[in-house]
Amino acid sequence: MIKAKWWIYQIGIPLVLLYAFPWFFNNAHTIHVAQTFLITYIVIVGLNLLVGLSNQLSLGHVGFYAIGAYSSAILTMTVGLNFFVSILISGLIAAVFGAIVALLSLRAKGPYLAMVTIAFGELISIIANRWVNVTGGPAGIKTSVPSLFGFELGQIQYMWFIGLLAIIFTAGATNIFRGRFGRTFTAFGNSEVASEVLGINVRNWKILAFSVSAFLAGVGGGLFAFQNQFISSTTFELNLSIMFLIAVIIGGSGTKIGPIIGTAVIIGLPQFLHNFVDYHLMIFGGILLIALILLPDGIVGAFTKLSYFKKFSSKKVNTDLGILHDDRKATIDLPDGINGKLLELKNISMHFGGLKAIDDVEIEVLGGTVHGIIGPNGSGKSTTVNVLSGVYMPTGGNLLWKGKDITKYAPHGIAQEGITRTFQNLQLFEDMSVLQNVMVGFHRHFKTGFLKNLLYLGQVSKEERYYAQKAYDLLRIVGLEERAHEKASDLPYGEQRLVEIARGLALKPDLLILDEPAAGASPKEIEKIMDVIQRLKNAGLSIILVEHHMDIVMNVCDYITVLDFGKKICEGTPETIQNDPRVIEAYLGGEEVNQLVAGTRSIG
Ligand SMILES: Nc1ncnc2c1ncn2[C@@H]1O[C@H](COP(=O)(O)OP(=O)(O)OP(=O)(O)O)[C@@H](O)[C@H]1O
């Protein structure tokens, strides 16, 4: 449920400020600047969701802005729609273009993504310039004075109108920030592969992030079209996209109040510099450069580092979920045990060009067992895990899950089936708290949709609190409840591995694949990790364990498959494996051979 405090800060105070603004600044120039501020702010709120949360760099937002501006102008002037309706439709049209850009740039990241978006912005800019019949080109086209319900909106009323929309969109964005949508945006922005193995269809979520962001840019453009009753293609150039991005970064990318500050800087600074009009761009550029070097986390980021402001920090992590610190026994919520064949690898091969990372491997994993996969370095263990989790599609053979062929499933599809994994090279969501990391694991269990989250209905906060409690319980199981609100990347290595295990458990998996869960951990941490695996085994969870520490393998595995040079060389119980000369030979010269021969001694 939304609290009274939220209404006061999010709606009440902004409304009063908006209404009172003309009492203090009642001249045409200031009102015009305020309008520009509010329009730009709406665009920045959307860009902040895309860049700040999802880490998708866009330098093409001017394209969505232009699409919004021309669509609303044409829908109003040519089609004859009401200006407000046309602005909303323009937002939707821009959102469709957002989805297209997302689809076109699915595999592009960082600078490559920036290039794709620049190309899109430039394309729209060229069309605006050249398609003179429709856009009027540089000479521009006229729009009308905006009117609502038959009343023409004067300059002040139009500012109030834009402000009202800005307040509504801010409230929506804040709700996205604090719920599972913001969390999912942040998750795939941090690690796409980890998001996928937790059941998140990253492609669809990217499309959503781009569409939402483009919608707000489109609405901003639509509002701009009626600000001066005139638009021209000269407005829609790359430098505007750059200004939008600078506002996000300088304000504090991914923070809730960053957009206000960033917009104030890019709109306000030129006002103060008007006396130096000849040097204006140079001074502006210089100030921005210095600010970016000195304040890499933006203005909000710099302030939140000061202890006084820490409590106001809103950077990505929402930790105010009212967790119960009770003494109940935390229980592991696992699916009903499955007997018999759970997973079958039938003649699975994974060849990279001429290299046979795994070749014609047959493995059967039985329900309720811990199945170890071992082998010397480079024997194909990680490749097997990548095939099992859908990260690689095998070049040969079939993967059967409870008898169903899942060979061609994407990682999120495999996760939806109930298989998840941890990573040898940790893949935590570094911008999130430990608790939030685990909450992402519940992805496939969340029921509320986008609109409900946008409005943050009672159902949403109930669901959030429910899963926060469950996440907290999982952290108690792995002994990390004290760390719940710490940033995941601040934890020691071994504890980060436990967070990944807790996050995987949140999926309520039928099969959990642990890829070298003890790698890089200290002996004390290894003991903790082994204890957790043992308890999961006792609770009946089916596990595939890839591990170099023979002590762990021999202690907890029911059955072991040994790989060497991509081939299965031996399979059986720990005792069988330990005494098999082929295994000893495969490991000969490696440091594990002593452990292997020593048998099931415990760690300590
Ligand atoms: N994406 C890839 N492209 C090309 N070769 C690869 C790729 N992934 C793995 N390999 C190669 O496949 C072989 C098996 O590697 P894999 O990482 O599966 O072994 P591993 O048993 O997990 O080794 P380690 O114990 O060192 O983690 C190695 O020769 C590796 O170089």
TrEMBL record:
Record keywords, A-Z: ATP-binding, Cell membrane, Membrane, Nucleotide-binding, Transmembrane, Transmembrane helix, Transport
GO molecular function: ATP binding
ABC transporter domain span: 343-590
Cell membrane is among the record's keywords: yes
Localization per record: Cell membrane
Membrane-spanning residues: 7-25, 31-50, 62-81, 87-106, 113-132, 158-177, 207-224, 257-273, 279-303
Domain of life per record: Bacteria
Keyword Cell membrane: yes
Protein name: Branched-chain amino acid ABC transporter ATP-binding protein/permease
Species assigned in the record: Psychrobacillus mangrovi
Lineage: Bacteria, Bacillati, Bacillota, Bacilli, Bacillales
